[in-house]
């Protein structure tokens, strides 16, 4: 059932299940994230055998066909959202409501099906606790609706979850480069130093930067900055978070430094970026 927004008198096409029984999956017209926190489940997804042991994640689209074969001591929670959740919009009250054309793309590849995207993404042991933290904060907010920006906060955490799952799922090795990427994707919202990255990779700073220059055309810290600004772009367009809130959520202590770096790298201020990519409609958030 869609959630009713008590502050803005609207339905929001999301739902959180604190106990997922797998009886009605996949949900119609919904993308669904399922966190398996205990036990093991054996099933067929689109006639392909899958096995998930806790801790694990299952990503389902509305077109998937899931057949459960067995569940052993399973505990799971799910969050589902309509594909238009990120592009619900509202134009001036004198006009008719209509959806905007812009919708989020980040992370949605985990709901597609090919040889790389099986519905059971690779989640590292270091990343899972962070994902679970975001997931439960998001789920709590569905019911708590703590203030008028509760939908905005859910979008923030969902963006972060989908982005992290997508990035982790693209990594198939555990080279020093992959270990650093894993660390960045999981901890970018915290303070990160070059020493943190060298310790993670078991390399000195020269060797680490040589790898990043060869693979990405920038230093390791330069990659961290680019990734933070990429996430900031999603939050600017799809949420109504203030610049200070966005800055702190991506690891900047002050919004002034965030604004300076964003403007230098993107060629426009965060506010200009937000206004440019939200046109022609104002987001209903």
> What is the N-to-C order of secondary-structure elements (H for helix, E for strand)?
EEEEEEEHHHHHHHHH
Largest sheet descriptor: 5 strands, antiparallel
What is the CATH class of the largest domain?
Mainly Beta
Query: Mean of residue pLDDT?
Result: 86
**Total number of strands:** 7
Q: Tell me what the CATH architecture of the largest domain is.
A: Sandwich
- What is the radius of gyration? 20 Å
Structural class: alpha+beta
Number of helices: 9
CATH topology of the largest domain: Jelly Rolls
Described by the principal axes of the CA atoms, the overall outline is globular
Distance between the termini: 19 Å
Low-confidence stretches: 88-102, 280-285
Strand content: 15-25%
Query: Structurally, how many domains make up the residues?
Result: 2
Helical fraction:
40-55%
Keywords: DNA-binding, Transcription, Transcription regulation
Protein name: HTH araC/xylS-type domain-containing protein
Domain HTH araC/xylS-type: 178-276
Pfam family, one: HTH_18
């Amino acid at each position: 059932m869609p959630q009713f927004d008590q502050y803005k008198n609207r339905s929001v096409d999301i739902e959180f299940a604190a106990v997922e029984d797998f009886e009605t999956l996949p949900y119609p017209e919904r993308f669904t994230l399922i966190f398996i926190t205990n036990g093991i489940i054996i099933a067929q997804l689109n006639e392909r055998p899958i096995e998930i042991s806790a801790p694990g994640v299952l990503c389902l689209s509305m077109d998937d066909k899931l057949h459960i074969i067995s569940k052993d001591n399973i505990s799971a929670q799910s969050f589902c959202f309509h594909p238009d959740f990120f592009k619900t919009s509202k134009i001036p009250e004198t006009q008719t409501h209509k959806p905007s054309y812009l919708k989020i793309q980040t992370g949605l590849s985990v709901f597609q099906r090919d040889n790389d995207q099986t519905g059971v993404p690779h989640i590292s042991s270091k990343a899972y606790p962070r994902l679970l933290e975001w997931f439960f904060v998001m789920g709590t907010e569905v019911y708590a609706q703590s203030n008028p920006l509760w939908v905005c906060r859910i979008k923030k955490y969902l963006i972060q979850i989908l982005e992290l799952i997508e990035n982790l799922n693209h990594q198939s090795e555990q080279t020093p480069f992959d270990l650093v990427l894993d660390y960045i994707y999981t901890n970018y919202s915290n303070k990160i130093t070059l020493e943190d990255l060298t310790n993670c990779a078991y390399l000195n700073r020269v060797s680490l930067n040589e790898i990043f220059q060869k693979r990405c055309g920038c230093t390791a810290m330069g990659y961290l900055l680019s990734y933070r600004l990429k996430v900031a772009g999603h939050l600017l367009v799809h949420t109504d978070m203030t610049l200070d809130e966005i800055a702190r959520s991506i690891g900047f202590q002050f919004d002034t430094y965030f604004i300076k770096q964003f403007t230098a790298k993107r060629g426009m201020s965060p506010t200009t970026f937000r206004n440019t990519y939200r046109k022609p409609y104002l987001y209903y958030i």
